[in-house]
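P.,

For your records, the input lines for the assembly:
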Amino acid sequence: EVQLLESGGGLVQPGGSLRLSCAASGFIFNNYALSWVRQAPGKGLEWVSSIRAGSDSTNYADSVKGRFTISRDNSKSTLYMQMDNLIADDTAVYYCATGGGNDNFDVWGQGTMVTVSS
Amino acid sequence: EIVMTQSPATLSVSPGERATLSCRASQSVSSNLAWYQQKPGRAPRLLIYGAATRVTGIPARFSGSGSGTEFTLTISSLQSEDFAIYYCQQYNNWATFGQGTKVEIK
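Structure tokens returned:
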């Protein structure tokens, strides 16, 4: 069974940092593009970032560019999102998903909540 | 950035009736369009990709159509489990989502 399991969310002060992880199982991790999608409370879905299968191509939404960094460790089948200089507008449930980079989002994790507040 | 606009924002439908949801792209996305269903407290679920291809296991009452800039998701006979929020998403140029259409019980 294909599974994605996010972790690392929590409460952080404005200007702080957090690293999210997404552990994958049930598929050949190296072969898939992966993405982060977020959803602020009561709002719609917002694509955040994607990394292609070869790890050499990444892209970010303008709202997080320069503050967030996506990466992957194929040996651990894990996707990461380093989030720096967090602001209140980053408060959301963060989902990891397979796909992105010119592909739909096929499989989703259950999400991890990030709250930015003093 | 490609902007995706969904209409209506809310659709009130009686069980058994047809629901028609629209999605418009600010520029052509070819057939690189997906539809997702999301229920409260749950992750989104992929229903349709390639504008018209149903994911394995998705009931045949869900159908997608369109290409270029105009797309439609049709639910032919609404069941109780279909009341949810539906999002379209283009993946012709990375990714953007529409703002969603809430399908509620009339």
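Two observations worth noting. Strands of chain A lie at 3-7, 10-12, 18-25, 34-39, 45-51, 58-60, 68-73, 78-83, 92-98, 112-116. Chain A is about 0% helix and 45% strand.

Regards
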